[in-house]
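All the exercises in this workshop are built on plain-text protein records. A record pairs a protein's sequence with a compact description of its fold. Read left to right, the C-alpha cells trace the chain's path through space. Once this layout is familiar, the rest of the handout is easier to follow. Here is such a record, shown just as it appears in the course material:
>
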Amino acid sequence: QVQLVESGGGLVQAGGSLRLSCAASGRTFSNYAMAWFRQAPGKEREFVAAIKWSGFSTLHADSVKGRFTISRDNAKNTVYLQMNSLKPEDTAVYYCAAGSWTTIVVISTLYYWGQGTPVTVSS
C-alpha cells in the first residue's frame, strides 16, 4: 500500500507560479512511476504530467508543456509539479497518482491516488 498526500495548492493570480508536492509513504516509492492529474469543476479528470521511477523520463500534456515541470526526489519520497505562467483554465483539483509507466496516462490503471489539492487561478 502507498499513501499519497498532496500539498501546495492555493489561490494565485494569472501569470503566477505554484509548486505542488506529493509525499508518499508505505511501500517503496521508487518502484512506481508517478503522475499528476487534474479535475476542473464539471469536467473529467485529465492527465497533466508523469515521471518514470528513475526520474529520467517525463511526459507532459500539451496544455501544460513549457509551463509545468514534474520532478521527483526518491530520497524524500516526494514528487513535485512546478507550475509557472498559470492561466485561469488551470483551475482544478490536482491529484497525484502512482502506477506503471507503460500505462501511466490511463486513469483506470493507476494503483494509488492522493486526496487532491485545489488550485485556483484568478484572472
Notes: Residues 60 and 93 are 17 Å apart (CA to CA). The chain is about 0% helix and 50% strand.
